[in-house]
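G.,

No rush on this.
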Amino acid sequence: MGEVILTMKGIDKSFPGVHALDHVDLEVRKGEVHALMGENGAGKSTLMKVLTGIYSKDSGTITYEGREVEFHNPREAQEAGIVIVHQELNMMNHLTVAQNIFIGREFMKGKLIDDAKMNAEANKLFQQLGIDINPAEKMGNLTVGKQQMCEIAKAISHEAKVIIFDEPSAALTEAEIEELFKIIRDLRAKQLGIVYISHRMDEIKVITDRVTVMRDGGYVGTLITEQCTKDDIINMMVGRVIYEDPKTASTVPPGAPVVLKVEHLNAGKMVKDVSFELHKGEILGFSGLMGAGRTETARALFGADPKESGDIYINGTKVDIKSPQDAVKHGIGYLSEDRKRYGIVVGKTVAENSTMAHLKDFLSGVFIDKKKENDVTQKYVDRLKTKTPSVDQLVVNLSGGNQQKVVLAKWLVRNCDILIFDEPTRGIDVGAKSEIYHLMNELAAEGKSIIMISSEMTEILRMSDRIVVMCEGRKTAEIDIAEATQENIMHAATLR
């Protein structure tokens, strides 16, 4: 690691009802990958928004390249060489790769945009990063991994000296993560300072040099990665020990009734003759590699995508589910992996989101009974330990983990007996994960039945009573948790 390039000292920031940052410190050196970790709501994103001029700080100092600075907007930060690669990619799918990289800074030939020059400059960036992408390709045609490489190229094009990676691997395959790490190591070798925000403990140990931990808006401490353990970091993040031992035996009572039976379900190219049963009080894990068809199966079951053939039985009665409304009517709730697109309305309050699936119960004539709505919402805020100043808080202002809890509250208010959790802890920190796991076990113990789709093997082994494994749209195995190992799940996940 080289000399210090960036220091944030005593950064304080408050919003109405929330002390978001409480005298936080961060130091980044040239040629280091510095992890920034903490539970959802710990203040990581707020700190980075203060750094890049999205928010103004209330107090504290930012020193960059030896002088005190304060950026008033992200463009000022970019021009100084501090760039964020966001988790949610800000790309325009109808434009080419090169047009996206140089948007707002286009090369001109007279009064016309010089696409040939932009393509050539984009190619230079890709060669510098050692990646193979056609600059003239439409952005929408690329995989998420390739789109992220374009975001990195865009950051480099600003002559970045500090790059902030916000949950960069959340939607990537293992191969794409390896490619990302190769690029990050190359940037480190070129003496850039890198801030790496992630919830994935295994990645932190592989790619970072130091770790700064935040908790509840405050600075906890900084560790040298090779000198600390995973448990050291977790204890600093949550202030308590979290156990993630795998489940060794099913907790479903013998003879538990079948609440959902799916026979020979077909839908598009990704759901081919899928059959399975779900018992009362069971957590049925769905495992497989990306593109296995797990989400597509759930969406066809929920009526979000049309099924071509197959039968669905609920409590022994055949049902016809053609839309999500039909599914909800039959007691099925679906927590999508893309909660912002399908799960919540970010411009509405916690109370409005929590009751939207069962709004008729909160009507008094033509008006909503706000007291009843708020009382019921508060009950689930307390039960789920949702961190929010009030039920009137806009969901957009909550952390990812707390947004997930609002989605869950919506289906609990609706009192669904069958819940589909699609990647329930994606983008959620270890503390919030543990709370979600505890809650899922509580729901199963109460007699709710859960289908859990997860790409995390440890999550599948920790939570499932039985595991359905899929590969290329087909069910390739069904394994009782007592017999499940990473090896036999992975074997089934790669069967053709």
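When you get to it, here's the other one too:
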Amino acid sequence: MSKYFSRTLCVMASLTVIFAVHGCKRNGNAMVTLAGSTAFQPFAEKLAEKYMETNRDVRINVQGGGSAVGIQSALSGAANIGMADLLKLPAEASALISTIVAKDGIAIVVNPKNAIANLTAAQAQDVFSGKISNWRDLGGSEAAINVISREEGSGTRSSFDKLVLGEEKLAPKALFQNSNGTIREAVASDPSSIGYVSIGLVNDKVKAVSFDGVLPTNENVKKGSYHLSRPVFFLTKGEPSEGAKKFIDYVLSEDSQSLLEKEGLIAAK
């Protein structure tokens, strides 16, 4: 059992009751439950709302918990569809059927008051590992750098660690948040902080910095010039149920993929 997988067991124990209803009916409606990636969660919720507008006999229940929870919930049958945003699925997920439904870039973000506009790959690695701990060493103001990261078990964290940290470890004094949204809010409230979020979640509350001179945009991800990105997977244990399959097909439809593009993600194809 991998460390990535085993960390989720205690989390799943508390979520089992929440997800136990995934196969039942609520108010006479069939229930399809999704669980996992908090980066993709708001997009899945938006798609679920639109799907239910024309499929009133189905209830789509979207839960978060992180990519590791998405994998475990699919394996255990606690959810019809697990959601994971990872560069590569762990060995445990080989027992699942995976479908790429989108691609997602990762932006390094700072507070808008921060003058820093670009980090080289080496600088980013040194900042997030704690080797560079003051903004003055990057040409900024005299202030300690507050690193903000996702918790272990997060697909965004796993992907970021591989892409940016490589063999280095995260800074010992890093602070942790449980979603892309809470990282964004933490960076927005602290002029000395730095974090990372999905490109689609960048707004005027934070400033996305260039990575090796390339702006974090979906266009640059598509062109291959911006390298911090990963796929988003839907995972099922065996062939999906009829309700789950219909929703997966809906997410992969041209209209839904166009919606994801408008909302800040990259279409699967």
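The radius of gyration is 19 Å. Residues 3-104+231-267 form a domain with the D-Maltodextrin-Binding Protein; domain 2 fold (CATH 3.40.190.10).

Enjoy the weekend,
O.
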